Amino acid sequence: ISEGQLDEEKMSVERRMFLRSEDLLPREKICKRVVGVIGCGSIGRQVALCLGTMGVGKIVLVDFDMVSDVNVGAQGFNVGDVGAYKVDRVGNQIRAMGTGVEVEYKRNRYACGMDVGTDVFVCVDSIGRQVALCLGTMGVGKVVLVDFDTVSDVNVGAQGFNVGDVGAYKVDRV
What is the DSSP string of 83-138? Predict the structure, then answer.
């Protein structure tokens, strides 16, 4: 098999990879998107992997945390991932898909003004509200807050929630 035949076969596989979703996710639009994922734990990892499968143009992964033994299994990491940055392991999984998605790694906490793309998924726990508000003031196109926690009495005051928010989903109170 010649090098040209290998290149042609690779392109053919890449084309077929997106055929099933072409009606829902037009390739010419999706491949131009730059999407940020803030937080690469259990939810952020899954969001990033889904975006990689969709074939977005670029994914910006933001997380300062390293994989620890408590992340194995529960967050989808393996024993061999312990001690590595979460963004590195998630990014490597995306690249291994072969969808051609560009991955940018930011191995630190999100900070206001950090360039994370025009569409952002906020997948962090305790500071999700603050990050979403910060992004909202920067002219980011779309912000999706991903959090399944409810407000408890320990969240009142320190995280900007009121007593009347207790019991509600945090994302409903942003």
Answer: TSBHHHHHHHHHHHTTS--EEEEE-S---TT----SEEEE--STTHHHHHHHHHTT
Residue 154 has pLDDT above 90, yes or no: no
Q: What is the C-alpha separation between 27 and 79, in angstroms, rounded? A: 35
Q: What is the pLDDT of residues 39-81, one digit of tens each?
A: 998 889 999 999 998 889 999 999 999 999 988 888 889 999 9
Six-digit token string for 137: 């003031």
List pLDDT tens digits, range 71-111.
888 888 999 999 999 999 999 999 998 888 999 999 998 88
Q: Measure the CA–CA gap between 123 and 63, rounded to whole angstroms.
A: 10
- 78 and 72 Cβ atoms separated by less than 8 Å: yes
Q: At what angle do helices 86-96 and 42-54 cross, to 10 degrees?
A: 30
* Torsions phi, psi for 97 (to 5 deg): -65, -25
HSE toward the beta carbon, residue 142, CA cutoff 13 A: 8
Tokens of 114: 């950090």
**The two structure tokens encoding residue 97:** 């898909």
